[in-house]
Amino acid sequence: MQAQQQLDKLHSSIFERKTPSFPEEDKKEAEVQEAKAAFDEAQCKVQPEKQAVKILSEAMRSIHEAIEHMDQAMSRSQAELLSNENAAGEAMDKHPLSRAQTAASQSNCSSSKHRSYHRRLKISLPCMCRKTI
Fold it and tell me: Is the predicted pLDDT of residue 23 greater than 90, yes or no?
């Protein structure tokens, strides 16, 4: 790590100062710095969007899981009605309806996390993207 810092410092001392005998090189370096600043600004704007997509994707997975468990619970309930079997002996946590409730709760949690993240993002985004040169 220290070697990398020393190398970066050496590189900066050699290449980051003006070279009057090579004005084209200075111009290209300035263009690179401008492109890097534009890239950093774009990354600053894209990163929060990526996080929002991740949170919403988690919510969608939980919703689909809840729907699947509700379908299983409905099928199981219909089968129990038809066969008159009593499934009261099984633990409720194994029942598809219970798993559906858990998945729905997880979806709700992810949605709440997204809303909270979005509120913080609106407040902090202008500050995060400012760079001092």
Answer: no
Tell me the whole-structure pTM to 2 decimals. Answer: 0.45
Number of domains in the chain: 1
Q: What is the pLDDT of residue 10?
A: 82
Count CA atoms closer than 13 A to 111's CA, side-chain side.
Answer: 10
73 with 97: CB under 8 angstroms? yes
Tell whether 49 is covered by a domain: no
**Residue range 37-96, pLDDT digits in tens:** 999 999 988 988 888 888 888 888 888 888 888 888 888 877 776 675 454 444 444 567
* Cβ-contact 96, 76 below 8 angstroms: yes
On whether residue 35 sits in a domain, the answer given is no
Q: Cα–Cα distance between 95 and 133 in angstroms, integer?
A: 60
Can you state the angle between helices 96-129 and 23-83, rounded to 10 degrees?
A: 160
Residue 130, phi then psi, degrees to nearest 5: -75, 135
With vertex at residue 63, the alpha carbon angle to CA 68 and CA 123, rounded to the nearest 5 degrees, is 170
